[in-house]
Amino acid sequence: MARTGRPGMSHEQKAELWQRWKAGETLSDIGRALGKHAASVFGVVAAKGGFAPMPRSRKPGSLSLDEREEISRGLVEGQSFQRLGRDLGRAVSTISREVAGNGGRQAYRATRADE
Length: 115
Prior knowledge:
By secondary structure, the chain is an all-alpha fold. It is built from eight helices and no strands. It has helices spanning 11-22, 27-34, 38-47, 65-76, 81-88, 92-100, 104-107, 110-114.
């Protein structure tokens, strides 16, 4: 589904927003620095109760971007899930779930899956 309205903030913009918020800058000052309306800044701050969210981290054992790129290249070459799993040292079920959950063989993209 297409997104309507104004685009949101990038991860970099949100990081800068929280840095400035912690430094005590006003919503208006932050908005000017980011090129956003103060109401947009307020929306981000209010959604988190004024507290910066914890940085995201990967779970131990999750696929890395490099592994996902190997899967993507292997799919283009027509490799089987068994071969991909063997080459990466992962279970076949891990490869199968990864591909099925991210568009299937024809639409799988490593960077999109990594997000």
